[in-house]
Automatic annotation (TrEMBL):
It holds the Pfam family zf-C2H2. Residues 134-161, 165-188, 191-218, 219-246, 247-274 form the C2H2-type domain. Transmembrane segments: none annotated. The lineage of its organism: Eukaryota, Metazoa, Chordata, Craniata, Vertebrata. Belongs to the snail C2H2-type zinc-finger protein family. Keywords: Developmental protein, DNA-binding, Metal-binding, Nucleus, Repeat, Repressor, Transcription, Transcription regulation, Zinc, Zinc-finger. It is found in: Nucleus. The keyword Nucleotide-binding does not apply. The gene is SNAI2. This is Zinc finger protein SNAI2. Residues 85-122 are annotated as: Disordered.
DNA sequence: CTGGGGAAGGGGCCC
DNA sequence: GGGGCCCCTTCCCCA
């Protein structure tokens, strides 16, 4: 079973190692890998089969998620006026501070946005309130009634903005067709190695695989002249030369050259012991 | 058991 | 929008 189907574990997605120093260590390395013409001459890129993903049944566009605002439902708790429901009637209570579900469209770290401030000023002006219509926050369409806006959001705008593209081979969903196409390649595996027949989802994966046959190792360690076929493997190797390991156990402060080694260490019971 | 190398996959960015 | 590439991550294997 290809690893692509394994569930990805995000132990700490926010902790990203800084590899910026790699360039200084490998200053002589060209950032663009020059693939030997030999590879392309002897092993031309495979013809990608007709993309099944483009067939009409490949995906199901506009899959309305069940989180859409129910028609004629009361305002969901935590739904702010910025969600398209003007608070001119004074019915909308501010979302509870602990509610994190309403952060979907909030890119601002400030608890009070400019739009909220403008709304506050409007609230102080009754004439402005009267002139206010029920406006969709997604497409700016205005409606004279709240129910009209709610129906619009349920049947059109929310469905459009939250449409998903479902893989017909598995239950994964993607927000864009491009992402779905890329994913489906992990099922169809259109790039086949002509030497061993192993199939890959992307051409560059095949190129990397072909290096295992040719022995080409374009990435050299500047410290020990050891060569690698994969840049990421060189990067991991460079950590072995470093006195300061990037991955540290937060309990015992022991450091590791790889995150996977830290994970092993943590799973072995260090964190439990402390 | 630990550390390291090899191989591979997915997401994201750029052109 | 698609391809190429990079980065990060994971798994397997071995010393």
């Amino acid at each position: 079973m290809p690893r692509s189907f394994l569930v990805k574990k995000h132990f700490n997605a926010s902790k990203k190692p800084n590899y910026s120093e790699l360039d200084t260590h490998t200053g002589s390395l060209d950032r663009r890998v020059i693939i030997s013409p030999y590879l392309y001459e002897s092993y031309p890129m495979p013809v990608i089969p007709q993309p099944e993903i483009l067939s009409s049944g490949a995906y199901s566009p506009i899959t309305v998620w069940t989180t859409a605002v129910p028609f004629h439902s009361p305002l969901p708790n935590g739904l702010s006026p910025l969600s398209g429901y003007p608070s001119s009637l004074g019915r909308v209570s501010p979302p509870p501070p602990s509610d994190t579900s309403s952060k979907d469209h909030s890119g601002s770290e400030s608890p009070i946005s400019d739009e909220e401030e403008r709304l506050q000023s409007k609230l102080s002006d009754p004439h402005a309130i009267e002139a206010e219509k029920f406006q969709c926050n997604l497409c700016s369409k205005t409606y004279s009634t709240f129910s009209g806006l709610a129906k619009h959001k349920q049947l059109h705008c929310d469905a459009q903005s939250r449409k998903s593209f479902s893989c017909k081979y598995c239950d994964k969903e993607y927000v864009s067709l491009g992402a779905l196409k890329m994913h489906i390649r992990t099922h169809t595996l259109p790039c086949v190695c002509k030497i061993c027949g192993k199939a890959f989802s992307r051409p560059w994966l095949l190129q990397g695989h072909i290096r295992t046959h040719t022995g080409e190792k374009p990435f050299s360690c500047p410290h020990c002249n050891r060569a690698f076929a994969d840049r990421s493997n060189l990067r991991a190797h460079l950590q072995t030369h470093s006195d300061v390991k990037k991955y540290q156990c937060k309990n015992c402060s022991k450091t590791f050259s790889r995150m996977s080694l830290l994970h092993k260490h943590e799973e072995s019971g260090c964190c439990v012991a402390h």
